[in-house]
């Protein structure tokens, strides 16, 4: 059994770690990658879109950093595939921040996106970012038109050769009747394109319509396709992010004024009828809980995909609860983060680090962990220290991105000082990122005490440095301890993610749910998405 296999890891009497190698093997054994519980991203994309082409022609690294660009491109492709499969055009981005994902879904995939964030600052940042994107897309449009002109010239020069080659290649082919070809295309359905057994009981009528549109589009010439793709840039931005250019100039001032009035009226009509528009992005400010009534925030709420890219703490489980409760939400794609901020139903303030406990039942409330009934019945608890460990990035450490040992050491000694000098064992205040702003350990302690609103005048410099000297020889121990936490991190993350997946499996209205590894864990350590689609009867 597993208990026998790993019984030698800890001393039976002292409970201390005695076999580091066995400990590491046990942690690897219970990691999500080793358990084989994830659905490959390529498999789910193939099942969702069938033979529909990929849309990865626009690169986001021009206006996002490398990490964010990687996350947005991968996740947006999946979200678009889910939306097309379900036949819906509305996306609700929970915890949207400054709108990186929301704006790209709207611009590139022609989706109507509501980005909801609790911070007014983030919402304002999303608006400002759209202004910057306006300049980027204008420049991209100019480059694209230049490329189109260049490509057209090359096509004209190459056309006779291509025609000759094509004729030679077709000499042994049978003539193809256009009508019969179109007839056979019409007979292709979504059921033919999507592998059976991957998803069940999901609406496909809208997807079939989209498939037919795609098949008709394929009859257009390559030149027309290219032209449409370039000129469509004007259509993929929000209404207030692009200037409308006329193909001809007005010859008189009166006509220009008339054209301005027409444009203004068209803009007003577009905003008034936004419920029927798709390629729009609306940043909204609202604090989301499990009880949030979305229709109070989104007046034209309709069939939607609910998404979240690194939703913090309880926001990730609450996203799943809203998905289950609201019939308008047809699918969900949630990537959580900040496990240390999760609320726990059975948490005990005196728990030992990295150990899971069972406690007696308590009052039923909405908690971040556990979600599924099985862990609730068992009374499972992680504790803050374990959840903090779950946030660590094993893959980054494995490629040489070591832990910030010195800053961790500063923080550990600071806690000893606070407890022994000030008698404080618990506080709602946080030190934050003071280490990077400090010139020395002494400076770090002084700034930290001020931020914690503790009187530092009672603590002379010599006393602070005495604490530093007392513990500096144990820095290697601290580094070793934190490395053990890093090794164990994937196991704790597994518990949290499987709890969320089991919660979805317990629901009656879910057609399919699973875990998908979306991102490169070195670029983005919180790389797993919880995905679910509702049954057709729920559409």
Automatic annotation (TrEMBL):
<dbReference type="InterPro" id="IPR025714">
    <property type="entry name" value="Methyltranfer_dom"/>
</dbReference>
<dbReference type="Pfam" id="PF13679">
    <property type="entry name" value="Methyltransf_32"/>
</dbReference>
<feature type="domain" description="Methyltransferase">
    <location>
        <begin position="67"/>
        <end position="345"/>
    </location>
</feature>
<dbReference type="InterPro" id="IPR029063">
    <property type="entry name" value="SAM-dependent_MTases_sf"/>
</dbReference>
<protein>
    <submittedName>
        <fullName>MET25 protein</fullName>
    </submittedName>
</protein>
<dbReference type="InterPro" id="IPR052220">
    <property type="entry name" value="METTL25"/>
</dbReference>
């Amino acid at each position: 059994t597993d208990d026998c296999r790993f019984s030698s890891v800890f001393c039976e009497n002292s409970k201390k770690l005695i076999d580091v190698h066995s400990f590491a093997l046990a942690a690897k054994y219970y990691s999500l990658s080793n358990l084989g519980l994830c659905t490959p991203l390529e498999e789910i994309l193939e099942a969702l879109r069938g033979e529909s082409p990929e849309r990865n022609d626009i690169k986001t690294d021009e206006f996002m950093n490398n990490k964010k660009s990687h996350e947005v491109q991968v996740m947006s492709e999946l979200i678009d595939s889910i939306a097309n499969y379900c036949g819906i055009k509305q996306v609700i981005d929970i915890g949207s921040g400054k709108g990186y994902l929301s704006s790209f879904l709207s611009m590139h995939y022609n989706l109507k996106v509501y980005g909801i964030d609790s911070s007014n600052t983030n919402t304002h940042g999303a608006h400002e970012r759209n202004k910057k994107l306006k300049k980027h897309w204008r420049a991209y449009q100019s480059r694209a038109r230049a490329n189109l002109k260049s490509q057209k010239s090359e096509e004209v020069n190459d056309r006779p050769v291509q025609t000759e080659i094509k004729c030679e290649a077709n000499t042994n082919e049978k003539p193809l009747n256009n009508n019969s070809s179109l007839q056979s295309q019409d007979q292709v359905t979504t059921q033919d394109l999507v592998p059976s057994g991957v998803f069940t009981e999901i609406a496909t009528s809208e997807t079939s319509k989209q498939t037919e549109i795609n098949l008709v589009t394929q009859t257009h010439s390559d030149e027309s396709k290219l032209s449409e793709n370039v000129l469509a840039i004007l259509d993929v931005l929000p209404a207030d992010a692009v200037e409308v250019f006329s193909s001809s100039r007005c010859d008189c001032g009166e006509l220009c004024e008339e054209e301005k009035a027409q444009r203004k009226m068209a803009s007003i009509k577009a905003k008034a009828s936004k419920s029927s528009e798709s390629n729009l992005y609306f940043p909204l400010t609202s604090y989301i809980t499990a009880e949030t009534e979305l229709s109070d925030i989104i007046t034209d709420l309709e069939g939607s995909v609910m998404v979240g890219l690194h939703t913090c703490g309880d926001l990730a489980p609450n996203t799943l609860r809203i998905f289950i409760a609201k019939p308008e939400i047809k699918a969900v794609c949630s990537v959580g983060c900040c496990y240390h901020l999760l609320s726990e139903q059975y948490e005990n303030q005196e728990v030992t680090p990295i150990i899971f406990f069972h406690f007696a039942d308590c009052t039923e409330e909405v908690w971040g962990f556990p979600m599924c009934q099985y862990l609730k019945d068992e009374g499972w608890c992680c504790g803050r220290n374990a959840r903090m460990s779950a946030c660590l990035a094993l893959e980054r450490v494995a490629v040489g991105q070591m832990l910030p040992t010195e800053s961790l050491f500063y923080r550990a000694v600071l806690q000893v000082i606070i407890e022994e000098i000030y008698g404080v064992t618990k506080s709602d205040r946080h030190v934050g990122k003071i280490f990077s702003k400090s010139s020395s350990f002494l400076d770090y302690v002084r700034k930290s005490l001020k931020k914690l609103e503790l009187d530092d005048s009672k603590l002379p410099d010599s006393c602070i440095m005495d604490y530093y000297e007392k513990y500096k020889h144990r820095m290697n121990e601290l580094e070793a301890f934190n490395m053990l936490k890093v090794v164990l991190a994937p196991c704790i993350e597994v518990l949290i993610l499987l709890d969320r997946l089991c919660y979805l499996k317990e629901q009656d209205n879910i057609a399919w749910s699973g875990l998908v590894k979306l991102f490169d864990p070195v670029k983005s350590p919180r790389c797993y998405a919880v995905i679910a689609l509702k049954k057709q009867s729920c559409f």
